[in-house]
User: Which sequence fits this backbone?
């Protein structure tokens, strides 16, 4: 294995491990995961239970999983995520066209996301069938967790019962706006 691949896998692995604890924290705050994932340590002000659980999972996973499987699984996960982001850009441009945007890109509302989605699909053609199967298993596990626990405990879903979709979008804009 060459040095570039090792550096790449290390960077991706560290990024995933560092971000996953915060993702668990945010999901627990919304009710998609049990609340203990959102517990904050008093002195370090970090989601310490999420860090411990993620660390144990990563240690076990890296001990039993070959590096090539890690790379392929990470790649297909990223490509699927990018496809959803591209599709969301197209949908949001047409369903929420009145939202103020600080800049515009010529043909950016449909051409760039469409080409990006097609390129992701093209890159996914190189993924092995075993990797595709592993991705489907992980996706199925995620769906089982979501529909058996997360859906019923989601604060956003409960908010959606009381407010219209535009109210949720307005709330999301307030949450995502940068602090001045």
Assistant:
């Amino acid at each position: 294995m060459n040095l570039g691949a090792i550096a790449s896998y290390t960077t991706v692995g560290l990024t995933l491990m560092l971000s996953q604890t915060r993702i668990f924290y945010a999901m627990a705050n919304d009710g998609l995961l049990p609340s203990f994932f959102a517990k904050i340590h008093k002195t370090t002000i970090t989601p310490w239970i999420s860090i411990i659980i993620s660390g144990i999972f990563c240690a076990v996973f890296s001990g039993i999983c070959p590096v090539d499987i890690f790379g392929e699984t990470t790649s297909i996960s990223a490509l699927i995520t990018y496809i959803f982001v591209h599709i969301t850009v197209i949908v949001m441009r047409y369903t929420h066209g009145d939202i103020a945007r600080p800049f515009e890109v010529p043909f950016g509302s449909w051409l760039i996301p469409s080409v990006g989605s097609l390129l992701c699909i093209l890159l996914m053609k190189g993924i092995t069938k075993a990797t595709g199967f592993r991705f489907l298993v992980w996706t199925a596990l995620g769906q089982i967790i979501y529909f058996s626990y997360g859906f019923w405990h989601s604060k956003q879903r409960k908010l959606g019962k009381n407010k219209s979709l535009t109210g949720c979008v307005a709330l999301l804009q307030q949450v995502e706006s940068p602090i001045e």
Summary: The chain has two domains: 1-64, 66-153. Residues 94 and 156 are 23 Å apart (CA to CA). Residues 1-64 form one domain.
